[in-house]
Amino acid sequence: MNWLKSTLSAVVGTEEPIYGPEAIQSVAQQTETTPYTEVNKEILRWRAYSYTNVETQTFYIMADNGTVVFVQVIYSNIVGIHTTAQFNVKIFDLSSKGNNKWYSDPLSNFMFDENMTSFGADNLSLTLNEDGDSYTIKSTVNSGSLVDLKFSRTAPGFVVGKDGTSYFGTDPKNPWGSMRHAFWPRCSVEGSITTSDQTYDLAGRGVFIMALQGMKPHHAAARWNFINFQTPTYSAIMMEFTTPPSYGSTKVNVGGIVKDGEIIYAGATNTVAHTATGQDEGSDWPAPQAIKWEWTGKTSDSKELSAVVEGPLGPRLDRIDVMAEVPGFIKSIAGSVAGTRPYIFQYSPQEKLSLKLKIGDEEITEEGTMFSESTFIS
């Protein structure tokens, strides 16, 4: 009966029943035997499943000149009957005037290469090299944002646990949904994006994330928190989602800290706290005003590790009303569920925050650049 209810809700968008926390097998369970696995080309394959799912490849850029950008490909399959792809480019105005540049375009004639590691469409190519350590992204999909970028991995990538995946369902051997994240936390970036009024030199540092939501997004998560923090020596990354009450409002947190050539720590024993909030008038969500991110665990050589980034977020870069921005096919997924009001709050504080890192008896503090998102869905 639970399987039938879940199948019906996946097809018609109805609210799910209460299965309880035992109906999610968090990736944290895998870390008991495998703290993390280094990313290889197999992990970077597009899955292109035939059932409802969303796959994304997102490239975050923190340029040496201060520009913050992300580019993204979204590949979606709705109930196995409708497949679509979208290319997004966002250039953030760090002056807090809100003049961000946002380009979102549907893709035509999209396809994968034979190995399912590269993606192409009319006027777009996203190519993984033979060694599996760099991507090139070239796009003339939108004449207002001409993209020519190269991301080269400078530290190993990772998935938490054995496969980076949390599974949903009352029968662990036959899950009906999944959530997976694979990270390249520290990359060098070269190239540019040319808009109608200027060319942005984007030489600097970047983060690449490949994600798979193997179920309807609002069934998998009610909240998200994400941080990308880059210092001269270290990269700290964390992704946390909280399930809806149907799965016990369970928190799943994956993250890690790396430096060039080395994963220092990766695991699931991390926490996020909104230490100050304010009710946002435009969305009525309790948007964060200050936040605290903590990583705790052991290094690969079994030293105790703790790290924290905390402080005020300052004026937000943007607040995205997802339902107003996304294509109609996603509106059809979420719009029929009462209480689903997805908003994304994006931040990059002008006041520099610091990564405070302790490894064994060694304590290190480095200022860095942060990009973070807090998302409220239902």
UniProtKB/TrEMBL annotation:
Membrane topology term: Peripheral membrane protein
Gene Ontology cellular component annotations, sorted alphabetically: endoplasmic reticulum membrane; Golgi apparatus; nucleus
Location in or out of the cell: Cytoplasm; Endoplasmic reticulum membrane; Golgi apparatus, cis-Golgi network membrane; Nucleus
Native source organism of the sequence: Penicillium bovifimosum
Protein name: Ceramide-binding protein SVF1
Stretches assigned to the Svf1-like N-terminal domain: 54-213
Lineage: Eukaryota, Fungi, Dikarya, Ascomycota, Pezizomycotina
Record flagged with keyword Repeat: no
Family statement: Belongs to the SVF1 family.
Keywords: Cytoplasm, Endoplasmic reticulum, Golgi apparatus, Lipid transport, Membrane, Nucleus, Transport
Residue stretches making up the Svf1-like C-terminal domain: 215-378
